[in-house]
Predict the structure.
Amino acid sequence: MGRYVFKRILLALVSIFIICLITFFAMNAIPGGPFNSEKALSAATKAALEARYNLDKPVHIQFILYMRNLLHGDFGVSLKTGREISTTLSSCFKVSARLGLTAAVFAIIFGIILGALAALFRNRWPDRIIVFFTTLFTAMPSFVFATLLLLVFCIELKVLPVFDASSRSYILPVIALMAYPMAYVTRLTKTSMLDALNQDYVRTARAKGVPMVSVIFKHALRNALIPVITYVGPMLAYILTGSLVVENIFTIGGLGQQFVKAISNRDYPLIMATTIFLAVVMVICNLLSDIAYKIVDPRITLD
Amino acid sequence: MEAVKKNPLSMQIDPALFEPATEDEKQQQEVMSESVTFFRDGMRKLMKNPLAVGSIIVLILIIITIIFAPLVVPYSYSGIAKVNGRRDRTNKNLSAFQYSQVEQEYIDQGGKVFPHIMGTDSLGRDYFIRVVYGARVSLTVGLFASILVLIIGVIYGSIAGYAGGRTDLIMMRIVDIIYSLPDMLIIILLSVVIKSSLGEDASQNFVLKTFGANMVSIFIVFGLLYWVGMARLVRGQILTIKNNEYILAARAIGAKPAHIIRKHIIPNCISVIIITTALQIPSAIFTESFLSFVGMGVEAPMPSLGSLANTARQGLQSYPDKLIYPAVLIVLIVLAFNLLGDGLRDAFDPKLRR
Amino acid sequence: MENTNGKKPPLLEVRNLHTAFKTDKGEVRAVNGVSYVLEEGHSLGIVGESGSGKSVSAYSIMQILDSNGHITEGQILFKGEDITHYSQKQMQEFRGKHCAMIFQDPMTSLNPVYTVGNQITEAIRIHSDKSKEEAKANAIKMLEMVGINDAERRMKQYPHELSGGMRQRVMIAMALVMEPSILIADEPTTALDVTIQAQILELMLDLQKKLNMAIIIVTHDLGVIAQMSDEIVVMYGGRICERGTAEDIFYNPCHEYTKGLLRSIPSTSNMKKKLVPIAGTPINLLNMPKGCAFCSRCDSAMKICLTQVPDELRIDKTHLASCWMNVKNGTYMKEEA
């Protein structure tokens, strides 16, 4: 177990390093330094500014300096606002995390329940209804769904506010974000549930006289949930990227909105910082879900 | 032995019945289920699946439309619709099949105006033709990206699978690392970079001019990142197939490697590869529309379904239909590919067969 | 079988059982009119090739068929009471408490995510009001009884941590904790090593004596069946073709299928001869022939075999076979009216 976790953490660290590398050099590949685009600065000012941000040094030194700052939690300064990026990130991340985690939790809970129901009522009407909606949701990009929700509930029906930081206003963004992962979890649970119900150990449990409810929930579902755990990591990544558009549509001031704004403003340090930050979050999520998977399934030999 | 019933037999039964039966008579008893080839059986199953058949029909209809509509509809996706060669300032934001003032006057004078099937956009461009071009872009991206993934993934995966040992280990470590990179973020990042660094001389480069910097960056990223799933799959398939007893059996009777690959390995993993490719298309379309929606997709006059939806967002209150058309089309295309992929899997995946 | 004392109904009686599965290709009739009697403490062996309906007939008793399968006709009498009409709840009580079952592959038949102890105590707690501690003590006792050393430690282990033979012992312990009167063993040794097979069979015989339970053993392995059974039933195509004691079946087979079956396995009596496989393939259960199911593969098939299946003909006191050859050769006893 220890070795596996160690290997997995090492892999995560390598990934994070590569992300930083790609991000840094990608941003450096953009022609023209950050101070070229603005109005002509005097050569002296420019040199002073470049020295201030270490831009006069060779690229690999810049990278090392940047990495060192990152380790200290220093993401640099936004070109647009001049504010410390780390403070912007932490305040925005709180909003995004709240939104994302709510969506994730609901997606998992509803997904498992619906998936189990679909498996139990296989080929009967509850299954058909669930299959219809999950198929539809998996075919609908989150921005389409979010915009449609906005159109129906805010503009046509006027039941829910667009966004005002109250908990009620979180309803639509959460629904928009969770639709796809929920549909996915539902499908996953259904497939693995059907698989589990066909397993010999379920037959054994029935032969022991275990009541049907217990057969389903104790014997089949527990096994069926193992694949769902592996999806948690990718799901959080999906929700994070999904929040890029959903936050914009519902004008929620989270990381997603910040990121898209940074792109349209060409605020390179902010783009870089947000990318690295989001990527690290995703890598950590994947790491945790992989480790959880190994813990839950005792069959897997831990090496 | 209570189960024994009273014996109804006695010896006066016709002795002719106790003649030996001929082989033919015996064979007639053996009602075998007819044997069909794997492919024919799969096709039959696919054709029995109404969702898959419906998806094929929808996709064919969409493809026919996007190929022939530009030939029929006299409007262009980039230019403002003109009436009899003159500019029409009254044709902005028309709803479906509505004619603008100028057009109406022209019709009254006996002229012919091709109807705006989906109305026009805020600049007065025919919306139908824009949606058609948007669908073209989306499908092209989906197809190209999937082919790219297919080629790279299959080659990489099969090399790793065949070679095994150390080569496999190293190749798979690389895959692991790429797999853990957040793809969407890197696509966005690369789009920003490519757009900024190549954007200026885009006019000189044919590829860039046709697809736009963002499309090219999508392809690059697909080529760099998205193949890993396919590579893992192919490698896994080859490894399991390689360890199967029937391969051992084939080897034991002296089959050559080329024969084994052709007869055993390819037929056994081709279906999985095809199915994954079919399911890759909607995922690429998703990515493209997502990027276009964020404003990083195709270059300005060229529409894509995502960018159309994004533009429609601004006038959402007054012209919600401008959102509905591209949105419904994306959903329809992705749905059709998903259902077709599912249908293919049900029909052709040998592992799902009982 | 002298112990039929007239009044007391037998422990288990299967009467004219028909079981079918609905599939998208049509109805698969897996069991077509099977009858047998199982007396207390006795053992019955059901032998046949795959697809002969032997396992399905056993699953039918427990009503643990797949969801598309159901009993279409016939009765299953447990101590004289028809259990085919039992409610879900009654059936749950029957399973495990009165009739237990063990399966072919102990690896897949034990739930991989629960410990051995958890799975055994579950069976106890369902069928009794024992407390957790009592159930645990009971389970440990049972594990020791099936010959597992260090039972207390094994209780905390997961199935994948045990060897194949050990897992099957756990399965047996789990099946027998409630001391059921019937144990159904579905190919209990097929997935095990030969050396372990003998141990498991011995264990089953030993426990049968200790607990005075009846055993139905379902297998394709004639060696297992010879060792284990008081009575043997040979099945083909969902029907019983021959039944009798081990001696009857092995030394005086009276059905062409049984003969073929015996010719196809090595034994001391035919060691010098060449083994003869049964030609052809098992019948298609979707399209059952009108006559004898075996006749397309039978060397001595006659015209009558194509159209009619004989009732079971009595060969002697314990031996019955449903094959026209016995009529042709006159090797059967005419029943006194």
The first strand of chain B starts at residue 82 and ends at 83. The radius of gyration of chain B is 30 Å. The interface with chain C takes residues 1-9, 13, 16-21, 25-33 of chain B (CB under 8 Å). Residues 257-294 of chain B form the longest helix (38 residues).
